[in-house]
Amino acid sequence: MNYKIIVTVLMFFTAASCEATQLEELTSSLQNWLNDQQRVPEHFSFSNGVLVANKSLLSGGEIHFKAKGNTCISYAPHRYFDKHTLAIAKALFSECQVLLTNTKHRNSRDAYGKLIDFGKYKNSSSNAFILAYSSTVESFSIYQIHGFAKEKRTTEQGRKADIILSEGHVFASKRTLNIAQCLNNTLGINALVYGRDVHELGGTHNVLNSLAPVNSQFFHIELSRELREQLITNNQLLKQFSLCLIS
């Protein structure tokens, strides 16, 4: 029994070490690309400012980058699962330098059987780019866009929410509180802050809670299905939504 435990522990640490090495190598190649965009990183194809992962990269992923814009990242990790989140993230990208999104469904698995859910999957192209990008700017924000269904919420507050904002934990910064106030006042919706107004969908298990660089601020943004449908059919509403996040 002891022998089996030792083998299991060794396998775990070997896999973790291999994963860390892969993430470091991917981050380094993306840092080189940010410094010289003629050097297309391994595992990617590049066209019109967009890096798209090849089949050789198990996690997949798509990276949009432009030189101008606010130092922020618009991020849709579940484009095939959370309907309309990619369209909303693309609108936010008009204000930011970076747009990140997945190219494989969150229920896909890698060669080791791990779910390729970009909200939890460590060894991803998105995480590597976030780490690479952090070395090129003084500070930046990450806006990760998710979707939820009101009828599936477990609390009365959650069922009444249009947006649930958090930073991946129960403590909200003044900036998060200001964003919520802007959304409530300008869009006339019910934007709640996790830990203060509601106690579900706070992104507390998100990989960026531990991985986000120290010079970044991570915002976990849950949008109800009804609000997502309003945003993609009302350009003015979508523009104001983006401005509330950025300001």
Set down the secondary structure blueprint.
Layout: H1 2-35, E1 44-47, E2 50-53, E3 62-65, E4 70-76, H2 85-93, E5 96-101, H3 125-134, E6 140-148, H4 156-160, E7 163-166, H5 174-187, E8 191-193, H6 208-211, E9 216-224, H7 225-233, H8 235-246
Helix pairs in contact: 1-3, 5-8, 7-8
- Roughly how much helix do the residues carry, as a percent range? 25-40%
Please state roughly what percent of the residues sit in beta strands, choosing from under 5%, 5-15%, 15-25%, 25-35%, 35-45% or over 45%.
15-25%
The 3D shape can be described as globular
Low-confidence stretches: 4-18
* Arithmetic mean pLDDT: 93
**Integer-rounded radius of gyration:** 19 Å
Query: With helices defined by DSSP (H or I, 4 residues minimum), what is the helix count?
Result: 8
Largest sheet data: 9 strands, mixed
Structural class: alpha/beta
SSE sequence, one letter per element: HEEEEHEHEHEHEHEHH
Give the spatial strand order of the biggest sheet. 1-2-3-5-4-6-9-7-8
Q: How far from one another are the termini?
A: 58 Å
* Secondary structure tally: strands: 9
Describe the structure.
With 247 residues, the chain is of the alpha/beta class. It has helices at 2-35, 85-93, 125-134, 156-160, 174-187, 208-211, 225-233, 235-246; strands spanning 44-47, 50-53, 62-65, 70-76, 96-101, 140-148, 163-166, 191-193, 216-224. It has a 9-stranded mixed β-sheet with strand order 1-2-3-5-4-6-9-7-8, sandwiched between helices. Helix 1 packs across helix 3 (125-134) and helix 7 (225-233) packs across helix 8 (235-246). The longest helix has 34 residues, at 2-35. The chain is globular. The termini are far apart.
